[in-house]
Specification:
Blueprint: H1 2-21, E1 26-31, E2 37-42, E3 48-53, E4 57-62, E5 68-73, E6 79-84, E7 90-95, E8 100-104, E9 109-114, E10 121-126, E11 132-137, E12 142-146, E13 152-156, E14 163-168, E15 174-179, E16 183-188, E17 194-199, E18 205-210, E19 216-221, E20 226-230, E21 236-240, E22 247-252, E23 258-263, E24 268-272, E25 277-282, E26 289-294, E27 300-305, E28 309-314, H2 315-319, H3 321-330, H4 344-359, H5 361-368, E29 379-386, E30 390-391, E31 400-405, E32 408-413, H6 416-425, E33 431-438, E34 443-452, E35 459-462, H7 472-484
Antiparallel strand pairs: 1-28, 2-3, 3-4, 4-5, 6-7, 7-8, 8-9, 10-11, 11-12, 12-13, 14-15, 15-16, 16-17, 18-19, 19-20, 20-21, 22-23, 23-24, 24-25, 26-27, 27-28, 29-33, 30-31, 31-32, 33-34, 34-35
């Protein structure tokens, strides 16, 4: 009898542990640097991870074992970023010593030291054809270098503060850059011509990346937000405000279904991009996360932290976590205490059945397509009108005002002709907007803000504009309003 009680207790503990660990599938922790890792990336074949850290080296690690393959040493300061070329032939690195170094990935040997920047180099990125290397720096520039010759192809200027990150669109047509001047810029990759400057962040922009279809660029900032921008129109699509500290890293899975974000909060947040829901919060690194990357098939995620650790996460468990937990809950009856009318043999068979079902949880959920994700409508909308609290001086160079509504600042693009009369009449204007309320975070904001200029009668849009066709609840509200007219 004591043995049976002990067995029951062990299964209850086992069940509890099973529930609590699905969301924390960190399969390896690599102590890559004695101080801090600034970047960690997968090789194109997914077999290696390269880390860049404060010890001035780049290290290669086997994903399968977590063992160090080799160490590349040539930088004279902390290494800020490392990148593999898509064809797997090259590795690029950059850092505090103001240099960009190109390595032979197959031989782990140094090819070129490129000294083109005049200040710390923050990030490097290869073009999709592996022929061009882009680097960005605290000297406010982005430099495009020919990989074969090491010669400078173009120098992109326009940012007014340090350029924190760069990214090539997967189709190779656009380069995105983020900066501490609080903007994101989009450049034509072939000509280097500036296409658009994206305004909206009110803090330093730390990282920028593209969705796999190249249609959307995402940026994260010290203002605690994640913003999504339409590449073709340069319009703000959406802002996520679910962080309470700086967001420093962002990555998308290759199929675009998953997004990972992290920063100084120490947690890695996993987002289901099909539903827009945050599905997991992983414990991250002890002192904040500085870099995130998925491998090419999206099955693994690597995070790099200020604590000097690179952590590898099993995304297949995260992907099916809710489904697995739901199925596991439906099997709970199999591990209930032994009934007085149940023989020991029947009880043991029940426990064996539970173990068999648990062993195939993941496979069952894959077959089901991970149906556990429920697309619940968490947002409500209502119409509101209000006044502008104050405005900034007019920026004639960029043809814009900053409008302040409460504690929130909005950029208003306006030509000089209208700006002059707006300056003397803005206090008479009534803004029309839709108030959006998130029932999960209990946070509200305003979208689709519009007003009519009192003199020119032109209609202006401010802030995020959401198409009703993209949101069923918003469309229902707009249709109801239109039927009243």
């Amino acid at each position: 009898m004591p043995m049976i009680k002990c067995l029951r207790f062990l299964f209850i503990v086992f069940l509890f542990i099973t529930y609590s660990t699905f969301a924390q599938q960190c399969i390896k922790t690599i102590k890559a640097d004695p101080q801090s890792i600034n970047c960690a990336v997968f090789s194109p074949d997914g077999k290696l991870i390269a880390t860049a850290g404060s010890d001035k080296t780049i290290k290669h690690w086997f994903v399968s074992s977590g063992e160090c393959k080799d160490t590349l040493s040539a930088h004279k300061g902390s290494v800020m970023s490392v990148a593999y070329s898509p064809d797997g032939k090259y590795i690029a690195s950059c850092g505090w010593d103001k240099s960009v170094i190109l390595w032979n990935a197959e031989r782990d040997s140094l090819l070129k030291v490129i000294n083109v920047h005049t200040d710390r180099v923050n990030a490097v990125c290869f073009s999709s054809d592996s022929k061009t290397l882009a680097s960005c720096s605290d000297d406010n520039t982005i430099i495009l270098t020919d990989v074969a010759t090491g010669e400078t192809l173009k120098t992109l200027t326009g940012h007014t503060d340090a350029v924190s990150s760069i990214a090539y669109s997967p189709d190779g047509k656009v380069i995105a850059s983020s900066s501490w001047d609080r903007t994101v810029k989009l450049w034509d990759a072939a000509s280097g011509i500036l296409q658009n400057t994206l305004h909206g962040h009110i803090g330093n922009v730390n990282c920028v990346t593209f969705t796999p279809n190249s249609k959307t660029v995402a940026s994260v900032s010290e203002d605690y937000t994640i913003k999504f921008w339409d590449v073709a129109t340069a319009k703000l699509i959406k802002t996520l405000k679910k962080d309470t500290s700086s967001v420093d890293a962002i990555a998308f899975s290759s199929d675009g279904a998953w997004m990972a974000t992290a920063g100084s909060s120490k947690y890695i947040k996993i987002w289901n991009m099909l539903t827009g829901d945050m599905t997991d919060m992983l414990p991250g690194n002890n002192k904040g996360v500085q870099s995130l990357r998925f491998n090419n098939d999206g099955s693994l995620l690597v995070s790099a932290g200020v604590d000097g650790n690179a952590r590898i996460w099993d995304m297949t468990y995260i992907k099916y976590e809710k489904c697995m937990n739901e199925k596991l809950a439906s099997y709970a009856y199999l591990v209930k205490p032994k009934d007085e009318f149940e023989t020991s043999e029947q009880y043991n068979k029940r426990l064996e059945q539970f173990m068999t079902l648990k062993a195939t949880l993941k496979e069952d959920c894959i077959k089901d397509g991970g149906v556990a994700f429920k697309n619940v409508a968490w947002t409500s909308y209502q119409f509101e009108t209000f006044k502008i609290d104050k405005i900034s001086d007019y920026d004639a160079d960029n043809q814009r005002y900053q409008l302040f509504i409460g504690k929130v600042s909005y950029t208003l693009m306006m030509p000089v002709e209208d700006a002059k009369t707006f300056k003397t009449s803005w206090q008479t204007i009534t803004l029309n907007a839709v108030k959006r309320y998130d029932q999960v975070s209990k946070v509200s904001d305003y979208i689709n803000i519009t007003f009519v200029h009192p003199v020119s009668k032109a209609t202006y849009e401010v802030g995020q504009q959401v198409e009703p066709a993209d949101d069923a609840m918003l469309k229902a509200l707009m249709d109801k309003q239109n039927n009243k007219k």
